[in-house]
Design brief:
38% helix; alpha+beta; 29% strand; four-stranded antiparallel sheet; 136 residues
Length: 136
């Protein structure tokens, strides 16, 4: 699973050891089909990586996407705890790796290089978004 975490844009600059530490901060959740993972408007308190199964993302009650193994959501919730922008519901039994804000903060305290790398990654993403907005 550390390799799957490395495919998440926010975590792409972390090395294998750092990804493993982040993985150990997470919890594996197994939910039944029909279970609501997160609700639109609720405070964001965790990041989720789909390990098995599928889940549907709904915004304003309209289907926005279907997530499967390797897909993820909530990475910004780790940083700001802002409200969820969508509801995610398991389509079938689903297995998720959940990383909550508290354990994530402990990783940042224990391995400062992780926080530094995340800042650089976020700055690059912001710079790229700014560049794209300037060309529109």
């Amino acid at each position: 699973m550390p390799d799957a975490l490395g495919s998440v844009g926010l975590f792409s600059s972390l090395n294998r050891r750092e990804l493993g530490r982040l993985r150990r901060a997470g919890t594996v959740l197994r939910l039944a089909g029909g279970a609501e993972v997160v609700a639109e408007g609720a405070p964001g308190d965790a990041f989720y990586l789909v390990v098995r199964g599928t889940a549907t993302v709904r915004r304003n009650r309209r289907k926005a996407a279907v997530l499967g193994p390797g897909d993820y959501f909530g990475e910004l919730a780790l940083l700001d705890g802002g409200p969820r922008t969508a509801t995610v519901v398991a389509d079938e039994p689903v297995e998720l790796l959940a990383i909550e804000r508290g354990p994530f903060a402990r990783v940042l305290e224990e391995v400062p290089a992780v926080g530094q790398k995340l800042l650089v990654t976020m700055a690059a993403r912001l710079r790229d978004a700014d560049r794209r907005a300037a060309t529109v």
